[in-house]
Amino acid sequence: MDLSSIITIIIFIVVAIIIFKIVKTILKTILIVLILSFLVTAIFGFFTYQDAVELKDNLETKPKLMLLQDNEKIAAGFIITDFEEEAEFLTINQIVKYQNSFKKQDYKKMLGDNYKMFIIEIKAFDFDDEELDFIGKKISKNILYSVLKSNDPIALYKSKTNVDPSLYGISDPVEFKSRVFALLFSEAIEKRGQFFIFSEYKKKNIIVYPETTVFKFIKLIPTFFIKNMFEKAKDSAINKINQTIKR
Length: 247
What we know:
Blueprint: H1 3-61, E1 64-70, E2 73-80, E3 88-89, H2 92-103, H3 107-111, E4 116-121, E5 131-134, E6 137-140, H4 141-149, H5 153-161, H6 173-192, H7 195-202, E7 206-209, H8 213-218, H9 223-230, H10 236-239, H11 242-245
Parallel strand pairs: 1-4
Antiparallel strand pairs: 1-2, 2-3, 4-7, 5-6
């Protein structure tokens, strides 16, 4: 064997060893990355699951502040704790206080002693000719939209329906709007289940405070996947709100 052949074999062996070490290092790096990714995903998944379980339990038993936003203003709201009981519908004086904090984005102050706060944009709701039962009469969602936008919702409602809300003990205009808001929220939950909250949150039509792991996770996944998760998971406890706002 001549010298050139020996040198070629040596070079080949050296190159093979270098390539082997490089491939080994790359494979080791890939394996480490995969293991770390798996661990991070598992840990994140665990905390997301824990948060989801806590969220479901607390939504059924702890006070929740629901606020309606229209053109950067808080227009109405209600507080609900146990869905078996009647909601506390907010009045004009209460809404003024929430509005002042909302301007400053002081969500912590707005939350107060409540477990969770949901600020829902009016555009999250569908307003069509469908009729809903409201204080003794079937009324279209189009008219309910007009009520929510009106500066004198009670007078407008009387003119549209010949029903006087004062006969049902309602004289505060914001309280009246708050009852309309609660009705629309109930109807949305009936139709879409929890998917309503999560899908509108993903569209940035709902502000949730505090924003826990579940909601941060929702931002990262496609809407169709959220729908598959929630369209069949309507929470019966949430639906019980109908018993309190359709009287």
